[in-house]
Amino acid sequence: MIDKKSRRVVIINNIQSDTIDQAIFILKSDKATEPSKSLDRDISLEAQKIIDNYINQVERLKKVQEPFSTRERNRHKPKRPSFFLPVTLTAGFMLAVFFLMIYFG
User: Fold this and answer.
1) Comparing 33 with 10, which gets the higher pLDDT?
2) Residues in a beta bridge with 11
3) How buried is 8 (Cβ within 10 angstroms: 0-12 exposed, 13-18 middle, 19+ buried)?
4) Beta bridge mates, 40
5) Which uninterrupted H or E stretch holds 24?
6) Is pTM beyond 0.90 here?
7) Distance (Å) of CA 37 to CA 22, 25, 31, 34
8) Which residues of 18-34 are buried (b: 16+ CB within 10 A; e: fewer)?
9) I need a labelling partner for 79 at 20 to 30 A (CA). Which of 9, 90, 99, 102 fits?
C-alpha cells in the first residue's frame, strides 16, 4: 500500500547506550513542511531528550527491580534447619542418659 502523504523521518544512529541501537522518529506533518537548520537542530535536541529520558527510565527500573526480585527469590526459599539446635539437643539427651545411668546404675 502506498501512502500519498510524505513524512519526514529522523533516524538517529550511534546512540551511546547498551539498550538502544537506533532511534527512528516520524515528525508530525505540520512541522515537516518547513525545513530549516534551526528546526533540524531543535528536532535533534528534542529527539536526544526523548532518548535520554527513556534510557534513564529503563536504568531506574533496573535498579528498583533487581533488589526486589532478589528479595522475592530469597523470601520463597525454604529455610534449612539450623545445625546447632539438633546437635545441642542430641548432646543434652546423651548427657542426661549418661548421668541417669551413673545415678541409677
Assistant:
1) 10
2) 24
3) middle
4) none
5) strand 23-26
6) no
7) 22, 17, 13, 10
8) eeeeebeeebeeeebee
9) 90
